[in-house]
Design brief:
The protein has four helices and three strands.
């Protein structure tokens, strides 16, 4: 789900957590101020039998940081990054 900014991501994350999600669903925020390690965790595959719901800004989708671009990491097996 793409949202305008980090504050909206936190608000929607809170609303979804308060609403109650199935145990197999993990909410994963993704925005520019996050550390590279936190961003990597979002992009890692989900644990088998679970699902990730990624709450991201358009910047997170369109503007990966330089280290991610140089490592050649994508959003999934064989998926190119939009640069």
């Amino acid at each position: 789900m793409f949202l305008p900014g980090a504050s909206e991501i936190r608000r929607v994350e809170s609303l979804l957590l308060d609403a109650g999600l199935p145990a197999a669903v993990t909410l994963m925020p993704l925005y520019g101020e996050m550390s590279a390690a936190a961003q990597d965790a979002v992009l890692a595959p989900a644990v088998p039998g679970s699902r990730k719901v990624v709450l991201a800004t358009n910047i997170a989708r369109d503007q990966p940081d330089d280290s991610r671009r140089h490592r050649g990491r994508g959003l999934g097996p064989g998926a190119p990054l939009a640069v």
